[in-house]
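Question (not urgent): is this output format expected?
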Amino acid sequence: MAVISSFLSPNLYHNPRECSGIPKASAWLVAGASPASYRSFSSFSLSSSASCSVRRRRTFSISAVDSTVTAEPEAARRLYVGNIPRTLDNEELTKMFAEHGSVEKAEVMYDKYSGRSRRFAFVTMNSVEDANAAIEKLNDTEVGGRKIKVNVTEKPLTTVDLSLLQAEESTFVDSPHKAYVGNLAKTVTADVLSKFFSEKGKVLGAKVSRVPGTSKSSGFGFVSFSSDDEVEAAIASFNNAMLEGQKIRVNKA
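Got this back:
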């Protein structure tokens, strides 16, 4: 009976690490225990198994929370890279930033009308630490004869600012007869551009390019006309002219 008593001991049978199932009734009775003893111990084992199941679920939940907490938001890892040479492409940009950390994505921004580089890019690093290292090492350094700017991307636009820019974009009338206007002052708006160029022809539309997701001017824009003659007249009259304190560049888009 001493052997049977040891076998029936809940402390010896229940292993918290393994949460074993309840022994079959036939095996229990063969060991010499009464049906009443089996029913009593079954209730205890079911309670222990449920407790183990709860512990497993709790462990999984804690792990899931921990992994979420350690994730770093993309906004803190995404860098704005400004004043880059027009010849710099995505591959060269990636190599440049990879020297200071792990790069997740690098993208030079191109104008959809002219296909030319807009002289700025976005680089997403794999960690905030890598992003900070890239800012420290690359901001205000010279690349292709130009001093580049590297910083964390601008704050998102407010709803009001975003709606104004969307309205500005939607009113632009595209045309095959366009002039590219560079070196614009930050204060120049589409309305200012339109009024300035209307002296030399019928302006169909004007737009100032913005840094995506912000109200910040990219420093260039486009003016569309009704004919090539008007484009040529605008270039002849306004290339190297002063607009709001800066000498603008005007050529065919």
